[in-house]
Amino acid sequence: MDISTEHYRTLFLSDWHLGLHGIKSAELLAFLETHDAETIYLVGDIIDQWVLGRSWSWNDDCDNILRNLMRKSERGTKIVYIPGNHDDSFRSWADTSINGITIQREAVHTTADGRRLWVIHGDEFDLFMQHSRLLCHIGHFGCQLLMKLNRPVAWVRRRLGLKPWSLAVAARRALQKSSKTYRRFARTITDEARRLGYNGVVCGHIHRAEFRLINGVEYWNDGDWVDSCTATVEAMDGTMNTLHYTTDSSTVERLRQRALVYPKEQTNGPPINHPPLLFKEVLP
After folding, report:
1. Mean pLDDT across the stretch 189-197?
2. 43 touches 84 (CB < 8 A)
3. Is 66 within the bounds of a domain?
C-alpha cells in the first residue's frame, strides 16, 4: 500500500540535533518522506556541533535527512536555515546558500492571510546562553548522560507495554520550571516581537512544542526531534497548528528503506554531493 504525502504551505522544524546519539532520526526521516511544503524553515540546532569526539553519532538516517532536503530544494521548495546555539558557526555564513538551502540569522514569514511572523531560534532570549555558556555546555553533557542512562529504562518500559518516558526530558522540564529565564521565555520573546511590529513569533530552543496568544501576539514553539517529534505547520489558507508526528514502527522502517533507494536513482538535475560533505567546513 502506498504511503500518502501531506502538503502544507509552510513547515517550521527545529532542534533536530543531528550527530547526537539517541535522537529521533528515523522518525524525522519518515516525517520528511511524507510531508512536503512550499517553504520549510529549519529553526536552529539542526546539526549539533557541541557533540565532541567519540560522542559524535552520524548514521544513514542523518545522511538521508539531508538528501531529502536537497531533493525538496531541487523540486522547488524554498528552504531557509536559521542557525541556533548548537550550530551557531553557520551564523557567519548568513545570506549565503549551500546546495539550495539559504542561511539567515532570522526571517520574517508572511502567512497566507497576511500575518507577519518573526522566525528565530530563540537562544538570543536565553540568559544562560548569553552569560553562562560554560553551564550550558555542562548541561548538554548532562543531557547526553541521562539519555544513555535512559536506554535500559526505555527497554524495560517497552517490554512492559508502558508509555515512553525520558530522564533527560524530566530533568529539562524540572530545570525550566525552576528557572525564571525559561518561565518568562515566551513572554519575553513575544514582547520583543510586539515591539518590532510582528503579529507573532515562531521559535525553538526550549524543546517544548506550544502555542500561546500573549497580549495579542502569537507564540509558536516547534518543539524538537530529540524526544517529542513535533513541528509547526501552516495550511494553504494560513491556518497554523502544532503537529505531533506519530506512526507505527513498521511504517518508519518502510520509509527508511525507501529513502535508501533514492541516491541510486538517476535524476535529471545535478548530482547530489555526499551529505556529510555538504557542511564539511563546520562538522566536527
Report:
1. 97
2. yes
3. yes
